[in-house]
Structures are given as C-alpha cells and as structure tokens.
Specification:
Blueprint: H1 6-18, H2 25-40, H3 43-52, H4 57-79
C-alpha cells in the first residue's frame, strides 16, 4: 500500500473518524471530492476556462483547484 499525500490522508482520516465502516469509505470520499470539484468548475465549462476565455489568473485558478481536487480523488480511488 502506498502512502497518501497529506491532503488525501487528511480527507480520509476525517472520513474514518466520522464512520467506523472502512469498506466503502474511500470510494465515498472520492465521490464527494469529485462532486466538490464539479461545483468549482462544472466539467462542461472546463474547456471554456482553459481555451475560449483567457481570464485573469484569479479566475483561471479555479481550474487548477478543480484539477487538484480530482487528483486527490484519483489518489484515493487508487488506494482502495
């Protein structure tokens, strides 16, 4: 089993503290993080942020936040 990043481990630890059932918790947490990422930038609008509208750095940062959240979800799913 590989070590998780501090961000992914913090999410998983918080979930384990609230639920004592580890069977499906990793998938549930990953799904919740993906849902949060979709709230930051809906998938169908990601291309607009990246390609069609060269907004300033502050607005483009939301795409980076989405990518970071999705990376944590991917890591958790790989840890299951």
């Amino acid at each position: 089993m590989t070590n998780l990043s501090p961000a992914a481990q913090a999410v998983l630890d918080a979930a384990y503290e609230s639920l004592d059932h580890r069977g499906y918790i990793t998938d549930l947490v990953a799904a919740a993080i993906r849902a949060a990422a979709d709230q930051v930038v809906p998938p169908e609008q990601e291309r607009l942020f990246n390609e069609e509208r060269p907004w300033d750095g502050e607005l483009c940062a939301v795409v980076e936040i989405r990518a970071e959240l999705l990376a944590i979800a991917d890591e958790l799913e790989g840890h299951a």
